[in-house]
């Protein structure tokens, strides 16, 4: 399975240059971890943009209604979830895509393409539901964004979920936990320090990371503020600072086809 590292590096380079005009003209392919953040900053910062010169890439983005995305659920697809905006704290419910519809679509992809051994559906649903709920209930953003794509030839699924709200550092601050930088707060979150008034069993980044990397043998990237974490089956989460800043939090993961049963209870802390 190809690594998420390269498209993530390309995203960081994009973010450094995304001021005034977002230039996608040279792009021939965009993964969800690149496509979704670009859509979000274009819309939420009212930036101008140039579409890819490649007709295939431009057609792909147009099919997903880039950069606006959809606020109402479209027909179910067997290998992708287009750009959807779902309700946040201040979003209007009637204008935002319903979380349960998105989950149903993702589970269909899981059943048809990824493989559905015992426990796999429950594990993936737990991860996505919790990340989407955290965005909707705790990010302070008006809405969250989601995009997913299954690649039949490469046999893996990419999912990206993000918000333009509070960073992890900002969430900690609200409950009286002060960190001097985003790297330390992200590291703390990955070690299990809850940013909620009460820690709930099974919630939080450690659970998600282990479920994806150990349960599914996948990879996971988290970007919040100017900090990034990367984890895989072979590498425990590595947290570093980056030279640009994301106002909010991005969670992206890649999982391969699997036939191995997954006991998701092993990863719930």
CATH architecture: 2-Layer Sandwich
- From the helix content, strand content and strand pairing, which structural class follows? alpha+beta
Largest sheet: 5 strands, antiparallel
- Assign the CATH class: Alpha Beta
Report on the structure:
The chain has one domain (5-267): Histidine kinase-like ATPase, C-terminal domain (Heat Shock Protein 90, 2-Layer Sandwich), CATH 3.30.565.10. The protein has helices spanning 5-17, 32-44, 55-63, 99-114, 120-138, 168-174, 182-190, 205-215; strands spanning 21-23, 48-50, 80-87, 143-151, 156-163, 219-232, 238-256. The protein is globular and about 45 Å long. The two termini are 28 Å apart. A hairpin with a 5-residue loop joins strand 6 and strand 7. Helix 1 (5-17) packs parallel to helix 2 (32-44) and helix 5 runs antiparallel to helix 8 (205-215). A five-stranded antiparallel sheet has the order 3-4-5-7-6, with helices on both faces. It contains eight helices and seven strands. The protein is an alpha+beta fold and 269 residues long. The mean pLDDT is 87.
Features:
two-stranded parallel sheet; single chain; alpha+beta; 269 residues; Heat Shock Protein 90
Describe what is shown at a glance.
The protein is of the alpha+beta class. The protein is built from 8 helices and 7 strands, in the order αβαβαβααββαααββ.
How is this fold's topology laid out?
Elements (H helix, E strand, L loop, with lengths): L4 H13 L3 E3 L8 H13 L3 E3 L4 H9 L16 E8 L11 H16 L5 H19 L4 E9 L4 E8 L4 H7 L7 H9 L14 H11 L3 E14 L5 E19 L13
Parallel strand pairs: 1-2
Antiparallel strand pairs: 3-4, 4-5, 5-7, 6-7
């Amino acid at each position: 399975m190809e690594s998420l590292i390269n498209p993530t590096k390309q995203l960081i380079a994009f973010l450094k240059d995304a001021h005034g005009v977002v230039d996608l003209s040279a792009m021939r392919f965009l993964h969800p971890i690149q496509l979704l953040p670009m859509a979000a900053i274009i819309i939420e910062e009212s930036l101008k943009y140039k579409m890819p010169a490649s007709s295939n890439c431009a057609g792909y983005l147009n099919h997903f209604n880039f950069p606006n995305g959809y606020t109402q659920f479209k027909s179910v697809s067997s290998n992708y979830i287009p750009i959807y905006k779902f309700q946040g704290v201040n979003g209007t419910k009637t204008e935002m895509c319903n979380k349960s519809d998105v989950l149903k679509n993702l589970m269909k992809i899981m059943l048809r393409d990824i493989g559905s051994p015992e426990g796999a559906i429950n594990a993936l649903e737990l991860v996505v539901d919790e990340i989407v709920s955290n965005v909707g209930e705790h990010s302070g953003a008006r809405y969250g964004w989601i995009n997913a794509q299954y690649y039949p030839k490469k046999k893996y699924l990419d999912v990206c979920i993000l918000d333009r709200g509070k960073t992890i550092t900002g969430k900690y601050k609200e409950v009286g936990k002060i960190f001097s930088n985003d790297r330390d707060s992200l590291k703390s979150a990955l070690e299990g320090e809850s940013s909620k008034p009460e820690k709930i069993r099974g919630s939080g980044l450690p659970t998600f990371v282990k479920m994806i990397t150990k349960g599914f043998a996948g990879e996971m990237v988290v970007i919040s503020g100017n900090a990034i974490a990367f984890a895989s089956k072979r590498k425990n989460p590595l947290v570093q600072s980056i030279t640009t800043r994301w106002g909010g939090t991005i969670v992206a993961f890649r999982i391969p086809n699997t036939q191995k049963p997954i006991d998701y209870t092993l990863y719930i802390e």
